Amino acid sequence: CWIFALAVLLSSMFVYNSLGTIDQNALDKLHYVTELTEHIKVKSSMNKESDSCLFARFFPAFIWTVRDFSLKLKWKKQLITEDEYLEHALKLRPGSSKKVQDYNSTRECIRNYFPSRKCFVFERPTSKTEELQNLEELTEDCLEPVFVKQVQTFCQHVFETSKAKTLQGGRTVTGRLLGNLAVTYIDTIRTGTIPCLENAVLLLSQTENSVAVKQAIEHYEMKMKKCMMLPTDTIGNFLELHAVCEEEAIQIFMNRSFKDDERKYQQQLMNMIKQSFERFHQKNEKESADRCTTVIVHVSQELEDQMTEGYYFKPGGYSCFRKDLMDIVEAYKAFPGKGIKADEVLKAFMEEKEVIARAVLQTDVTCTEKEKQIEDERLKREAAELQRIAMEKKSADVQQMVLNQQKSYEENVRQLKIKLEEDRRSLLEELERVIDQKLKEQALLKDEFHEKAEKLE
Question: 317-334 vs 301-308: helix axis angle to the nearest 10?
Answer without folding.
Answer: 160
